[in-house]
Amino acid sequence: RDDRGQGQQSAEPPACSKCTMDFVEKSIQKVNQLGAGGGGGTDSKYFQTTKKGEIHELREELANPKMEKKKEAVKKVIAAMTVGKDVSMLFTDVVNCIQTVNIELKKLVYLYLINYAKSQPDLAILAVNTFVKDTQDVNPLIRALAVRTMGCIRVDKIVEYLCEPLRKCLKDEDPYVRKTSAVCVAKLYDINGELVEDQGFLDMVYDLLGDSNPMVVSNAVAALAEISETSELGQKVFQINTSTLQKMLAALNECTEWGQVFILDSLALYCPSDGREAESIIERVTPRLQHANSAVVLSAVKVMIKYMDLITSQDTLKALYKKMAPPLVTLLSSEPEIQYVALRNINLIVQKRPTILAHEIKVFFSKYNDPIYVKMEKLEIMIKLASERNVDQVLMELKEYATEVDVEFVRRSVRAIGRCAIKLERAAERCINVLLELIQTKVNYVVQEAVIVIKDIFRKFPNRYESIIGTLCENLDTLDEPEAKGSMIWIIGEYAERIDNADELLESFLESFDDETASVQLQMLTATVKLFLKRPAETQKMVQDVLTLATQDSDNPDLRDRGYIYWRLLSTDPEAAKQVVLAEKPNINDDSFTLDPSVLDELITHLSTLASIYHKPPSTFITGRTRMVPTLGGGAHDDEYEESDANITSDMMDGGMGGAQAAPPAMPAPSAGGLGGGVGTPRPRKPAASSSNASSSSDSSSPESYPSQPCGNEAQARRGSEGRGGRARARGGGRRVCASA
């Protein structure tokens, strides 16, 4: 555990590995010595045989009348079965050994039966009489063993023979037999549910909820809960009323820890009639918070949080918050694996009731030897608990994390600073200052993450912190990641009127336009059009170059379509282009609490289960469905998006099969009233050509000027006949059009 916790900071891994190997070798030698000495405490010798053709020898040993020889033979059979050898041909010989009073031999035979009964169902019927006989044995251990084995043999042919023995065991005088029988009913229901319902076993298990033994009660609860999950009747199988509720609460204090988990999980599904009953149940459950088992603690927390919705008294809630915080904090002192599970559950708890751990943010500060998965979870919870009261502590801690050696953790820490700024408006300036300090470190990946989060801060708080743009531009040459480049380009385009050399900065990205990712190209296209709309006189050539690259030299349909849209907007109605491209952007929101309230409520009822680790309802991964968990502001199903995208793409492809897309119309020179200050004047347009002329001219490479808005037969002819050559002409003739970044 120390090696796993410290990761790469372990002092001497080779020495530790050597110590481990020495320990393993010594252990093996010791086991071998014990096995060679024939000691009764070890069975390792049964796994060391390499003999071939031993089936015949085993059959002879199984038929030996001596008990010890027979037991040795069955152990050899079990050992061979355990390592994967097929010993099913010995089924009859092993079953013949079941008639014995030796409980150890009987357990071994039952183990063999459970493994091979499904492959030998006809022979398994031979053991039915023994099961029936063993359920009437004077020894309760043998009675329970027979019932347990009956439930594990999943063969339909023998199920009906087991009903009467099971009925007797459910009413057995020994509680050990009764609790085993309760679980057997759940197993039997999984094999043949109709038989269990017809035989009245569900009612008999329900009666066990009032048993005097707490272990019987807990197993009955577990069986009914299991059946209710798979039954078509659903929750009708297990309905908790006032009487059964009191019996379950009485058994809660005396049953084992896993029995307590079963009872608490069932209580979480119960709906109290009013706040007073909820408070009463919480009072009975609260002592479970002090339990040493983390599963019991989380199950108790689940019940309490569920019932808090019915409590209206703020004083009562505050008292419960104080009681719940210490046990949750204690879970973080466990092993890293348990810490991770606890943190995933705490993540949900904080989203539902952030007040519980509002004063415990320090326990979520990462330690140097925490595994990366624990650090990441602690970071998420820190952001959720950040408030104006503790934001200074959080920022100091995050700034410290930004100097760690783990690059991914550093990136997440820098992004966490930006998320704090978006979440806490009053602390935004302090977050900006911390980010500027991190930029001064000149660490490449730190600078790039800082640029990304500053872009988000600009979106959240426009026209507040633009004074730092100069500092960002100084680090322009260090950006080499697509997201960082896209963020910087967005900032330049959005605040082009405040950056004197915005055109020069964008031109530096334009040089490598073809080599950039699609996201950077899209940002470059939009930023260039923004700059053109704000400063048209200076950026005519640049916008023409970018639009040409996007529409004629790119294979990306998204980039090409956006280029066409911008080109037509600028050529037909510049004012409309301004309204579209320079429209006010919607503010981004805090994403700390991303789960939909209804999904969060469902996940709270599944605390301490796998659903709380995945942060997805059980129906999304148990039944095999791939439905995504909806988030705040979420839209339609992802599959619907994929289908619609596929349709759009296929439509575009179908439309393009008949002929190339029409070349975009050339943009007019900017007028004095609108986009004034254009360089040069348009060349005079030639007379419109017929469709045949347009077709033949598409093969020509000479530049030709197109009308701003092609119409009628001329436009149709051009759509049908223009190919790559037509687009090349548009590119050649488009140099005269005003363009801007």
Distance between the termini: 57 Å
Residue runs with pLDDT of under 50 for 5 or more positions: 1-21, 23-41, 624-741
Provide a count of the helices: 39
Number-wise, the strands total 0
**Secondary-structure-derived class:** mainly alpha
Helix content: 55-70%
Major β-sheet profile? none
Rounded mean pLDDT score:
76
CA gyration radius, whole angstroms: 37 Å
Strand content: under 5%
Q: Could you describe the 3D structure shown?
A:
Helix content is about 60%, strand content about 0%. The chain contains 39 helices and no strands. The longest helix is centred in the N-terminal third of the chain and has 24 residues, at about 15-35. It is elongated, with a radius of gyration of 37 Å. Residues about 1-20, about 25-40 and about 625-740 have low confidence and may be disordered.
Quick synopsis:
The protein is mainly alpha-helical and 741 residues long. The chain contains 39 helices and no strands. The N terminus and C terminus are likely disordered.
